[in-house]
Amino acid sequence: MMNKKYVTLFAMTAVLTLSSVSCGPENEENNSVPELPVLSTEADTTEETTTETVTEVKTEAATTVSTEADEETTTEATTEITTEEEEKTEAPTEEQEDEPQEEEQPDEPEQQEPQEVKFSFDTLLNDVSGVVASLGEPVNVSTAPSCYTNGADSKIYEYDGVKIECYVLDGVENVCVVTITNSNYSTDKGITIGSSQADVEAAYGAGETAGDYTIYYSGDKELDVKFIDGAAAELIFYTAV
Fold it and tell me: Residue 2 has what DSSP assignment?
């Protein structure tokens, strides 16, 4: 009887045990396999992305450094070529060093050669422009207002050895006085500074003495000659204005 009772209790205990294992939500939760979070794939992807980014940055940095190095090399090479060209341009050859270098002379303005001008009584009261054109550039030119009895202004052209005085009327410069002081100029009859009094009288006739001058007339015009030691020292063609 006792063994049978123990067998019965044991069987009931086994049933209850199996029932508690197979039923109920708590048992399902306890017996279910827990799901592990999938982190390895994302971590691997992140690591791969980071590795690729670092690789790209390194590649870009290397490319930049390489490009800058190439640019520096190109710049240095260009500078060297330019320097060599400048040295070739500046450095004279041996033949050039042996040849004497001619200095460039500044262009001088062309000077008009004065033409020979012979003065006469006919020079007086005529336009001076032709005489000035023949004589060339004067040494000095001066003017003065209302110097004559007719109210005309005066204009004087000075050259080495001759002075020409004009009166200006209606825009025309008319010769009224010609003074010769050296032998560069002469009269139309060949009288110049140094001519003897006899030569002057032979050319112009007998003159009239007035102070230091001997005057030779041609109508209202005159030739005044100053003699020193029997030779002409100054010749003046003159007419009153």
Answer: H
